[in-house]
Amino acid sequence: MKVQGAKKVHYDSGPNMTPLVDVVMVILIFLMLAGSFAANQRYLMSDIPIGTNGSGGPQDKPNGPIPTRLDVRLSQRALPYACTIGPSEAHNFKGVQALFTEQVERFKASSIDPETVQVTIFPTQDVRLDNLLKVYQAALTSGFKKVGFGVQQ
Amino acid sequence: MKRHSMPEVKEGGVNVTPLIDVVMCLIIFFMLVAKIGVTSGNDSSITIPSLYYGQDLRANANLFTLNVSHSLGGGEGRVQALWQGKLQDLPIMDDKGVPMLRNVLTYFRNGDPGKGIQPNPDFKVVIRGEEALPFSALAPVLVECTAANCKAIAFAGKPTNNLPDETDANGDIPTESGPTN
């Protein structure tokens, strides 16, 4: 039986690219693993950080229109929290959101743009940050833009 | 006269040139967008709250992160920030009565004319607070930010697609809401 060998001799032209490809692939995998690309944090912006319950508070522009205020009380006297707007109270995000939406409709009925309304959240000293931010988010998702915090004095 | 010609070139294996082209493009892309060795002053030991609503802040040059935890007890918060190249405590009032936090914030916000550093009206403070942080510990930090003329404050949180309070401890959706007595 005749054994057939390679019929043609192969010649490699140019430099050997295999080590280059190996190194480049290692660098590529390192960069893909070590880099942080997706946003791992989200931010709630507040332009008016804090005010007081008295005569102080956010400084308005001189001679500018007096902003309409909406005061929100927040405490831990109920679980997980108790949020009071006027005579109404809610204890969860959807309930608080409903209260804010009600206020938005009320302002619109009075021809007041809700985005100009200064919402001030007055938390008690024991209110947790996560509960504070839930109420904050409820205000923003309901249509208010100017949300800040107040210190009860 | 016998003429010698070049031997016929036969390439063995696959052509890797397009692969190298693509891989080089990917490497350049990742080198440009990856933030390796760049720290924003986040204290990873702090468990931050989840945020359903919020935005991304890309302009990191104008951000100053304050890590606020409640490890000191007694209602007082502990503020840590990346200052002078390392993560260190920035007490609201240090042992000598110097308002350290306010001074640092004022430096970033108003600049330093002596060193030729211009005021930065776009300066933003990012507060990374513990989710269980009481407001008694947060309020002094907010007061210092206001005193340092920092009008823009952002609260950092973990992105989530779930509505807050979507389920209670029993897995039920709480619905109680209504007028107070």
Report on this structure.
- The complex is a heterodimer of chains A (153) and B (181).
- With 153 residues, chain A is α/β, with parallel strands linked by helices.
- Chain A has a domain at 50-59 and 67-151: Nucleotidyltransferase, domain 5 (2-Layer Sandwich), CATH 3.30.420.
- In chain A, 31% of the residues lie in helices and 22% in strands.
- Chain A contains 3 helices and 7 strands, in the order αβββββαβαβ.
- Chain A has a 6-stranded mixed beta sheet.
- In chain A, a hairpin with a 6-residue loop joins strand 3 and strand 4.
- In chain A, helix 2 packs parallel to helix 3.
- The longest helix of chain A is centred in the N-terminal third of the chain and has 17 residues, at 18-34.
- Chain A starts with 17 loop residues before the first helix and ends with a strand.
- In chain A, 35% of the residues are buried.
- With 181 residues, chain B is of the alpha/beta class.
- Chain B has a domain at 50-159: Nucleotidyltransferase, domain 5 (2-Layer Sandwich).
- Helix content of chain B is 23%, strand content 20%.
- Chain B contains 3 helices and 7 strands, in the order H-E-E-E-E-H-E-H-E-E.
- In chain B, strand 2 and strand 3 (78-83) form a beta hairpin.
- In chain B, helix 2 crosses helix 3 (135-147).
- Mean pLDDT of chain B is 77; it is low at 168-181.
- Strand 5 (88-90) of chain A pairs antiparallel with strand 7 (177-179) of chain B.
Q: Which features does this protein show?
A:
heterodimer; A: 153 residues; alpha/beta; Nucleotidyltransferase, domain 5; six-stranded mixed sheet; 3 helices; elongated; B: 181 residues; 7 strands; 23% helix
